[in-house]
Amino acid sequence: MLWLAWKTFFHEKGRLFLTLLGITVSSVLALVEVSIYLGMMDNATSIIRKTPGDIWITSRNIKAFDFAPPFPEQRINQVNSHPEVVWAEKLQLTYAYLKLADGGLEQVEVIGFNPDTDIGAPWNMQVGQAADVKGGRYMIMDLSSQQRLGKLEPDSLWEVSINNLSMFKLVGLSDGIKSFTTIPFVFMSYNEAQNLQAGGAKTGRTAYIVAKVKDPARAAAVAVELRARLRDNDVLTKQEFIDRTIRYWTIQTGMGMAFFLTALLAVLIGGAVVGQAIFANTMEHLREYGTLKAIGARNRDIYVVIFGQAATSAVLGYVPGLAITMMMQGTVSKLGVPLLLDWPLLATMFVVIMMTCLVSAWFSVRKIRVLDPVSVFRS
Amino acid sequence: MTAALEISHVSKIYGSGDNRVVAVDDVSLTLAAGEVVLIEGPSGSGKTTLLSMMGCIMRPTLGEVRLAGELVRQEEGDALATVRLRHIGFMFQAFNLFPALNAEENVELVLRLKGYSRATRRPEARRLLELVGLGARCGHYPEQLSGGEKQRVAFARALAGDPPLLLADEPTANLDSRRGKEVLALVRELAMSSGKAVVIVSHDPKAEVFAHRVVAMEDGKLRKGP
Asked: DSSP label at A342?
């Protein structure tokens, strides 16, 4: 009976167009909102994910990666002394100001890493190498920061300040490393980041200790044991730290939730559009459904017609929605808005749109189920 | 010989107590194969209710319906739909064709429901349309057909799958006098040649000449006996 579903569906071009337009617009809205949310979460956790450690030691009750109160760096010894830890490395995080060509100041998020090990180093280098920051006031910035900082020329000198001012030479450019807050990242050696923070004095404090364990499957167990040794710190597995960061940006700031709710609204509006269209279509064709029942169609034959139309709406509405979103991706990304469109998301959104359409069709099915075929004798 | 349709002491009662309405009151009727019976009567006399019970669309409150000698069990769900599909072809006053389907597809729809294969249903639909004189209009949609042509398509659809019983509810009500007569003549001719029993419900006095037997209903009862 899908045959009848399609024949009826494609017969009324005006209604078909409006139904598909509603689903397409909803699909675009939902896809864009969800992919922006995922893109932002991807940015928020990118350094945790790219850093090759299994365990992160942070200050107590840290909210997210970007907010790391420092703690004594000698605690790395307690981490290194654990028999299952292969290596442990310190990572610095602080905020500084960068003086722009026009004299203005732009806040940046400074990551200090050990250039000998490259743990916590930038990736996807377009100019230079991560190790180039070694041995002086050298820094690496990301090409995506050009929107805020202006043209980033290799070998250019930049004034970086927290309390005191220091000159840093730009020795490398990465591509695609962004923070959730869109504050540009600046990578430098651990020692220089520490010096910058303390105005030249050694503070002996670090933002993070990252540790690699022999067997990654044992990371959670090792973290539990390290927690017993480091009572003033949080000891988190990589996934726990990612989850905590995502939870912070999603729930505690409400920013992620706003995107999520907009996406949900888009799906609901799409559902309402298709539901209204299918229900109105059903009501207009009540006599035909009554005739179908009278001439011997079973209820399930008619359900196939209605659900078939809903499923067809979902497919034909979602595909152009997907195409439009993919075409938008490049332009939107250039504007600095991250759009993470991967196959699991596309498949999930398709299922969501399909389920919304099918649930909407259920109201029509309920109407048909109680339709008395005797009604066809009443002209 | 087994009757194509037999209804025995059939009644339809709505409500109870003071609100009790007897729409059909103890009606019995038997139709032989190839016989055309006309049921006439004023509006509200119970004709359509009786037709609905004959067509297994409505369950009688009392009495029983037999199709080809087989008692119709008044079951819930899709069981009666299957009985209708196997035994009965319907014609409606407003034709009730599907506007999204052309003439051939309207006929084919019933054949699909009856499980005809892809290879057989299209030629069979064409054959039936040729039988009713619409061989040249197979690809036309209902909106492109005249009232008489629509009713012929509806007749071809009713014949699809060769049901032994045809039920027609006011088949000429939306047709002019000439086309009404043409349709009724066609129904009678094909019913007789193919051995189908036909029940026509109509206000139209001109329909009487096309029936083998005329029964009248008044206040839910048959005025002339079978």
From this structure: -
Closest-CA residue to B133 (of B90, B94, B97, B183):
B183
* Tens of pLDDT, residues A337-348: 778 888 998 999
pLDDT in tens, B50-99: 999 999 988 899 999 999 888 888 776 678 888 899 999 999 888 899 99
Contacts of A32 (CB under 8 A, 6+ apart): A325, A328, A332, A339
Nearest to B92 among A8, A297, A376 (CB): A376
Backbone φ and ψ for B43, nearest 5 degrees, come out as -60, 140
Nearest to B113 among A11, A287, A301 (CB): A301
Q: How far is B97 from chain A (nearest CA, A)?
A: 8
**How far is A309 from A4, CA to CA, in rounded Å?**
9
CB A72 within 8 A of CB A194: no
Residue B226: pLDDT band with limits 50, 70, 90: very low
What ipTM describes this predicted complex? 0.89
Separation CA A166–CA B212 (nearest Å): 112
H/E stretch holding A141 reads: strand A138-142
Report the alpha-carbon distance of residue A209 to residue A73 in Å, rounded.
Answer: 8
Answer yes or no: are the C-beta atoms of B48 and B169 closer than 8 Å.
yes
For Cα atoms A290, B24, B16, give the angle at the middle one, nearest 5 degrees: 95
- Give the integer Cα–Cα distance in Å for A38 and A24: 21
- B100:A293 CB<8 A: no
Say how far apart CA B12 and CA A152 lie, in whole Å: 89
Q: From residue A287, how far is each of A198, A361, B53, B169, B220 by CA, in Å? A: 82, 18, 19, 15, 26
Q: How near does any CA of chain B get to the CA of A357, in Å? A: 22
Tokens of B161: 């799958």
Question: Cα(A235)–Cα(A75) distance, rounded to whole angstroms?
Answer: 12
